[in-house]
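Write out this protein's structure.
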Amino acid sequence: MTFTRRRFLQGAAGVVGGYVVAGAGLRATPLGGMPMTMPQLAAPKVPLVNPVTLARFVDALPIPPVARPLEHRAHAAYPGRLLPFYRMEMRAFSARLHRDLPPTPQWGYGGSSPGPTLEAMRNQPLLVEWVNALPQRHFLPIDHNIHGAERGKPEVRTVAHVHGARAPAASDGYPEDWFAPGHSAVYHYPNGQDAATLWYHDHAMGITRLNIYAGLIGAYLVRDPEEQALGLPAGECDLPLILCDRLIAKDGQLYYPLSDDPAAPWVSECNGNAILCNGKLYPFMQVEPRRYRLRLVNAANARFYDLSLSSGQPFQQIASDQGLLAAPLPRQRVELYPAERADVVVDFAGMDGKTVQLRQQSEAILEFRVRDRGRRDTSAWPASLRAVPRIDPASAVRDRVLTLGEQDDAGGNPMMMMLGGKHWSAPVTESPVQDSVEIWSLVNLTGDVHPVHLHLVRFQVIERRPFDLFAWNASKTLKYTGPAQPPPPHEAGWKDTVRADPGMVTRIIARFEGEPGRYVWHCHLLEHEDNEMMRPYQLLPASQNAKAQEPA
């Protein structure tokens, strides 16, 4: 029987009597490939919380505060102008994830997780000083065999990335631009993009999975006048809802799963059994009988979410990763893979005194308690939102065929994830030209879904299409075995993270707008990203390398 990594970790690892236990001798097989040696999960030495035993909906949902600028400062890119200046300090702290649990040690921006929400207006730049005030030692297990996490480097390293931001390369959070405790970096965000729900998180090379698991996440909202003119729910009725999952020890400590090899503790995916909403387990929220805008963010290491409402009413999705859809889209269920976002409107009108739960599959994870009466709902419900003009594939100067694969590593790791069959440290092979249009055909050779994220740019999904893996293995020829599948309506807007399905070629198209420089693209399953499933790409100036603009 073939096991993908997801089936391995969901089926082989379970919680029995409050402990995580691992299956024995399972191996994952890439589609059409040789079996891969899988790291077995070691049972922890401490008992874990079984969330089923906890009281539900006894803690209020935390709403992260909106960050305020400390002052205004000059920046070389804007002569004679002062920009809002924020300081986001990364600190260790402890907080209760649930009323009946001891405080949990975590790391967070501003001493909380999620951190304060950063808000910006389109084309109004700002500065953020990201300050590493964390301890010198990490409290989660580092695998020093992973590239970028060698023993000679500081245990605690951070670099912030605003996911989905059109930021210059020097402010994008390049994984090797990390800094240790006692240091900081000032980043510049031009905010030259449409209104969208973005989020910020750590991106340090080789330990991103650990730093995000520790709590280094937060929301970054870009607004613009066109969206504000639509009259959508605003103020207290517009809030980020950041979802992630964790394994929690009964003493309140976060537990991160390990392989059974103490010299190589990396595991291929981390799926927790406790789902946190804005940092709380099973919280509740008092709402008025009116419309609310929920900005759903999947900040999990590896888990995908399948969300629905207990009332049976549909969500009205109004936006995806990079902003508004063309029109509201009713959806009974909203699926989000790691790093994906969906803005939805939920109308609690007529539900006075009732409760509605947000469900992950069949499990209620958040309860809305509708007050008996509320203020008048002045929000609008427009029939159309924002035009999403399609990029013409004929305008593309490249169609890059890029594989998503995996292989055994004779150097010590039981398995590595690969993009284009290349390591992170290999020379750059993708060098789009500024303002050019390219198609990237993502060929998934594995048995897993991979959410693929491109930094800097927004893109559109063209299609997904099944292909003959045996023909690919024999001659590296793409032979399609079925018709192209156009994106569903919720993927017809602007995206920055796309679900690449196994056995499929997922084709996306992007105009590479932004400042020239070095950026990255990667799988957003954080364990994969940390173990070679990330590659740099170079955005060339439009004035250089005219030959690169010719069709390949």
